[in-house]
Amino acid sequence: MAQIELVGVEKSYGRPKRGHEARKAVSDLSYVIEDGHFVSLLGPSGCGKTTTLNMIAGLEDISGGEILIDGRRVDDLDPDKRDLAFVFQDYALYPHMSVYENIAFGLRMRKVAKDEIDRRVRDAARRLDIAHVLDVKPKSLSGGQRQRVALARAIARRPAVFLFDEPLSNLDALLRDQTRSELKVLHRELGATSVYVTHDQEEAMTLSDRIAVMSRGRLEQYGSPYEVYHEPATEFVASFVGKPRMNLFTAKRGERGRHVLPGTAFGVESGALPEEIRVGLRPEECDLRRPLAGEQPHGTVVAVEPLGNVSDVHLTMGDVEFLVRVPGFGSYGVGDAVVVDLTRARLHCFDPETGRRLAVS
Ligand SMILES: Nc1ncnc2c1ncn2[C@@H]1O[C@H](COP(=O)(O)OP(=O)(O)OP(=O)(O)O)[C@@H](O)[C@H]1O
Ligand SMILES: [Mg+2]
Fold it and tell me: From the CB of 199, is ligand 1 less than 6 Å away?
C-alpha cells in the first residue's frame, strides 16, 4: 500500500548567486499518485523527470515543498527506509555475481530468511523468463536479459513502490515493445504503485493510469491517457502527445464565428474566442476529399508517406504545412488539390500567449 503525494515540490541545483535565484530544475510540482496506480513522468530531455523520481526515491534532497507517502512526510527519510525499488536504464548489475546472487543481494542485505530468499528469487525469475540463466554472470547475457534481471531484482524485494527510469531505452525496438507489454502484465499481477520515467509518449500512453506531462521543470498536465490525448491542457501537451504530431497553427477570426487560416479557404467553427488563437487538429481525425465543381480547395498535396495500414498525406495550405492520416495507401498524389473534411475532428484551441486550453462553445 502506498499513495505518494507531491505538494509544491521544487529542486534547485547549486547555490543562488548574489542577486540571482538558483536555477530551478523543477518547481511547483503538486499531484497525488494513487495507491496501485502506474504513473508516467513524461517529457523531453532535461524537463526534470529523473530529478523528480530521485526526490521521491530520496536520492536527491528537495529544495522546497513536501513529499508524503501514505500521508507521512518522507523528505528526511533515507532511501532504504522508503520501501521502494529502483530500476535504472543501465541495469546496474554486479558483474562478479551470478544472476541468482544479483537478484538475492538486496534481500540478503535486509536479512530475509534463506528459504524465503530462494522462493522469491525463483518466483521473480519465472515471471521474467530468466529461470534458466540463474547461474551465469551478467556479462554472458543479452541486453534484454540483463534488463530482466534488474526487473527481477526489484520484484523480489516486494516493495510498496516501484520506480523506473527509462528502463527500456537501451533495448532494440522489438524487444522494447515486448518488454513493455510484459511490464503491463506484471503491474496488473503485482498491483504495486509504480512511477515510470520516459520521454516516449507511446510508452506512457500504453502503460499508465495517469501521466504527468512535464516541460522545463513544470507540470503541464496530470491526467489519464484519455485526458492528455483528447483534452490536452496546454499546447505543449497537444504537440507532445500523439503520433503523428497534432497539426497546430495560428488562426484569425473571420466571418460568422469562424477562425480561418490567413490567406486560405481553410477555417473552423470556433465561437466566441479571442481574435487570434492557436488551433490544433489531429491528423488521424481529419479526412480528405477532392473539391466539388467550383469549390475552392484548401491545399495541395506535397508528399505521401505510405505506412501500409495508413498513409500520411502532407499538404500545404498557404504558408502552413498540414498533415492528414488516411486509411491504407490512399488515392492522392503529389500536386492534387484537396479539401480537408473535419466531420470527425475534435477542435483544440489554445491561448497564443499562455498556451492554455480555451473552452470551445
Ligand atoms: N546534479 C545536477 N547538478 C546541476 N544540474 C542538474 C543536476 N542534475 C540535473 N540537473 C539539471 O536539472 C534539469 C533536469 O534534469 P533531469 O535529469 O531531471 O532531466 P530529465 O527529464 O530526466 O532528462 P533526460 O530525459 O535527459 O534524462 C536539467 O536542466 C539538468 O541539467
Ligand atoms: Mg532522466
Answer: yes
Query: Is the CB–ligand 1 distance for residue 61 below 6 Å?
Result: no
The residue ranges of every structural domain in the chain are 4-240, 247-358
Cβ neighbours of 184 (radius 10 Å): 14
CB within 8 Å of 100: residues ≥ 6 apart: 121, 125, 134, 135
DSSP single-letter state for residue 215: E
pLDDT, mean of each 10-residue run, the chain (361 residues): 94 77 88 98 97 94 94 86 85 92 93 95 93 94 90 92 92 88 92 96 97 97 98 98 96 88 88 92 97 95 98 95 96 96 95 94 61
Pocket test for ligand 1, best of 9, 29, 50 (most atoms within 8 A of CB): 50
> What separation in Å is there between the alpha carbon of 165 and the centre of ligand 2?
7
Superfamily for domain range 4-240:
P-loop containing nucleotide triphosphate hydrolases (3.40.50.300)
pLDDT tens-digit series, residues 254-300:
888 889 998 888 999 888 889 999 999 999 999 999 999 999 999 99
CB 187, CB 154: distance < 8 Å: no
CATH of the structural domain 247-358, one choice from 3.40.120.10, 3.40.50.920, 2.40.50.140, 2.30.30.60: 2.40.50.140
- Distance of CA 46 from the midpoint of ligand 2 (Å): 7
For cell 500521508, name the residue: 71
